[in-house]
C-alpha cells in the first residue's frame, strides 16, 4: 500500500535566533529511518534510501514523504530534479519516480541484465548512469529525455592500464560535462569525464592517464576516484590517495576541469581532526566547496560530516563550521554523513545515526534568515499565525517575547501554504 505521511510536527527543528537552520526528517517508526542521498537544486525535494528497503522522496515544502516498500522493494533513489522527479534503480532496472509515485523504466535497447541511474539534472531532462552487458561489464551512459546515449570508452592502450568497463555518475546542470570513472583491476575507479560536442556527441577525457597507477609505483596517485561534479561543470570532487609505499591516508580532492589540476584538502594543525584521518568525498558546489565525511573502520559508525570551503586549506567538521546548529554536534557522537551540497552552497544534505539507532535525514540551510514569528508574518502580510504549546493547545498571543520558557509550535500561512516551525524559548 502506498504510504504518504504528513510529517509537519515530526520534521521541523529550526534554530530560531541564528542565520542557519536545520530541518530534520525523522524516522516514521521502528525500522523506518531515512537516509537522504540527494537534494534538488531549489532545495525543495530530497531523495534517498530508507530502512524499509525502498527509495523515498521528501517534499520539504508540503512536509510529505512518499515511499512504497511493498510495491517497490529494493528501490534506491540517487538524484532528484527541481520538479520532484528522482532517478535511481528498482531491482535490476534504472528508473525514475515522481512525487506522485509514478515509476518509469529507462530505455536499455540492448537488453542487458542490469542498469543503474545515479543522477538527474535539475530540469529532469538528463539522467546519468550505466548499463551492463551479459558479462556484467558496465558502460557509462546518459538518457536524454528518455533516449539512451552510450558514452565513448578508452582502450587499455589509450589509458595505460587494464580496464573492465566505465561508469557515469554525475553531470553539470546543462549536461555538457559528464563525470565518471574507469573500472580498473584494483577497484579504485580512476576519474574520467566527457564533454558534449555541438552535434550532441561526447568526447572522452582521461585526466587519470599518466597520474594514476593501479599499483604503487612512480605515478602521483593510487586512488583518484570521482564522486561528483559541480553544476557549472568547473569542478570534480575526488577521493585521492597519493602513490607511496607508506600507505598515506585518503584525502578529499577537487579537480579544476579546465586545467585538470588537483588540489588536496589538508587537515589544519590544532584542530579536532587528526592529520592521519581518512576522508570520503561526496559532492561539490560551483565555487569548489566540497562536502563529505571522515572515514571509519567501524562500518557506518564513527563518521563525522565535514565541509571543505573554497579558499580554505582543508575540511572541518560541519558541527564546528555551524556551531549554532547544536543537532550537528549531537550527530557527531554516533555518525553523520554528508552526501550533497547544492550548487550555490546554500543547502547541505546529510543523514545521521541517532542515540536510539535510528536514522535522521537533515538539511542545513546555511543562509536562512532568523526564524520566528516576525519573518513569518512579513513574508506574507495576509498570513494567519497561531502558536501552540507542547500540549497542542493554542496560545492566546502571537508575541514571541511574551512566551514563557518551553517549546512551541508555530503555524503560519494561508490555505494549503501553511508552514510549521518549532520554537524553543529559553
Structure description:
- The chain is built from five helices and 33 strands.
- By secondary structure, it is mainly beta.
- Strands 1-6-5-4-3 form a five-stranded antiparallel β-sheet, with no helix packed on it.
- A hairpin with a 5-residue loop joins β3 (34-39) and β4.
- The protein is globular and about 75 Å long.
- The chain starts with a strand and ends with a strand.
Helix vs. strand class: mainly beta
Strand % is 35-45%
What do the pLDDT scores average to?
A: 82
Q: Radius of gyration, Cα only, in angstroms?
A: 22 Å
Q: What overall form do the CA principal axes indicate?
A: globular
- Contiguous runs where pLDDT drops below 50 for at least 5 residues: 1-18, 370-383, 413-418
Number of alpha- plus pi-helical segments: 5
| End-to-end separation | 43 Å
Q: Main beta sheet: strand number and arrangement?
A: 5 strands, antiparallel
The number of E-state strands comes to: 33
Key features of this structure:
426 residues, 5 helices, 44% strand, disordered N terminus, 4-stranded antiparallel β-sheet, 5-stranded antiparallel β-sheet, mainly beta, 33 strands
